[in-house]
What does this fold into?
Amino acid sequence: MDQKEWKGLRTYALYCLVAAISLAVVFLVYFSRTKRNIQEQAEAQLAEVTRQYANAIKTDMCGTIQAVEVLAHVFGELGQGVPETIIPLLMGAVDTLGLKRMGYITPDGMAHATDGLTFDARNRPYFKKALMGSPSVSILLVDKTDDNPINVYVSPIIHKGKVLGALFATVQTDAFIMSIDDRLFNGSGQVLVTDSQGHILFRGRGSVQLARYGNIAELIPPSAPGSPDHGIPDAFGSGGLFSYDGRPYYMAHSKLELTSTEWHIFSIVPEDTLAANVGTIQREVLYLMLFFIGLSMLFLWLVLRMQGRQAKRLRRAKQFLETVIENIPGGFFRYSNDEKLEFDYISEGFLKLIGHSRDSFKETYGNRFDNLVHPEDRKRVFDSINRQIKRSDYDMVEYRVTKADGRILWLFDKAQLVHDENGRSWFYVIVMDITSLRKTQQELKISEERYRILTELSERIIFEHDLVIRRSYFSPRFKEKFGYDPAVDGASGSLSEHCIHAEDRPLYRQFFSRILSGRSAPAELRFLKQPSGVLWCRVQAVAISDESGQPVRIVGEIADIDTEKRNTERLRKKAQLDPLTGLYNASSARKRIEACLRQPPGAGMHVLAVIDVNHFKQINDTCGHLTGDHALIETARRLSAMLNEGDIAGRIGGDEFIALFRDVPSRDALERRIGELRRGLSFPLPDGLSMSASIGMAAFPDDAADYTGLFRMADASMYAEKRHRGEDVKGD
It folds into this structure.
């Protein structure tokens, strides 16, 4: 080889060397940048996936929490606090919200679930918090029915500032987290859920085995930049690369803030998983350097291959994200925050919910959000959204939409305003079908209004006594009827005895005791009126008991029976009186005298007198029956005037009377009273006739011990007086 050839070869070799080095440098720089791009994209993908995990979990939990709070608010407004009323209403909400169960906790701490489960919740923190009027989220509890982890969302039911109980919803914790863990880079990563202090609450089933650690801070060496000393600092950001036990890991972090708790979602993936192809690319560079001739073609092939794999990963991540979105209960869509309000994305779940295809949706609504909202709701919806945007808050609204078949749906809209890199802003919206809930609310409102109207229109007074919170309700008729607001006993929550006539209060106490013991029987009581007087009423009620049989509520009515009662009393008294004289008739007089004789006299003796009008037949025959009736009436009047308090008088025959003189102190006193009676019953009549009477007496208990014996002796004494005076004797 001559000098020229050698020089040329050297030049070519140098050229090749320079070209190879240059190409190698170029390729090395390119692939170095490509490696960083792959890593950055993988990191961004991991961070985005983690954020989507958090958003999906948050959306699911917030939707459930909001639904529980809405239901609790509805029941609170209606004053509902009875399991028998609340549990049937929650049955439909369980399926709609995809819950494991819902239930109601009474103020005494007994929980009643839609699946029939009952348990004592008095010592559980979420119930104690609910009694203070605060909602709560209890995470990663253990369901004692199947030992699975659950979340429990609790919201108090508040009526007029008083806690009536609490509403709770139970969600299977691992139902959504496990599915996320399985999809994280084909199971090569692991999902961790921590509290605000970094304590690991849940760990997935991925291949990254860090199970011996209880706090996320233990995974980061103290010397590492930004390592947490206490909990999880905000400086941790979205995550990053760290090394532990000599092995590099990528960690992505996202906050999950809820109503009463804060979770943190961590996705941990080994570095070699994200950069699995970097070594291959480096080897390819070496091959290209060794095989200079085919470097360009190989480089092109590698670039195309890399781009294909990158596109595949991106498609996989997009597919995963779309899968998460499509499985959101209700639906998801995105629309622009500008004058166009155009939809940019609509999930298949939402299209299915409203019964449209994508083409028919665009044709029907013009691909605009405002056209989707029912015309009657648009102003209200956008006013609400604008107000909440000004507060930099999430917008939560409810509105109607029209389905493809013409039916109306009520949607609950939970949105977040997001700004992209181009300066445009978008509403990311999750919606939930609350049609059945709104229907239930409307039915409850109608039922409540119907009850109120019936109560106000009824002539009877409707009342309720809540024995737990010691609250009472009386319909407005009470004040209209009695002239004052009902007085309520603070100890029992029942109607105060001060509303009842003093003589009837023992009867009222007996009535109230019967009701509490489960027996229902009406009571007729006298109620006090304002400013004075009484009113007869019939009170009847029933007691409503809880599951343990303990009375918790009394429901009843008060009916006005005053007119009925007074008419009955007048008829009763009329049936006891002689129609001509107004004295007791024979039967009534005997009953009252016998009742008096059953008690010994307080002093002296009781005296039974039998009185017969003398010559009454002559008076009738001479002066007529009208004069005879007048004589009998006057006799009865004079007899009544000579009675003391407690004495009894009655007419037992045509011209015969009977009288009982009570507590006559002596025989002398008796003779004086009989003398006065005889003189008082003597008076003139027309046609020269006069009125007089024969009187027979018998003393109790000296002469006889019962009515029959006294009457027999007094009647005999009367006839003996007639014979002595020469008067006509009947039957002679």
Notes: The chain has a mean pLDDT of 78.
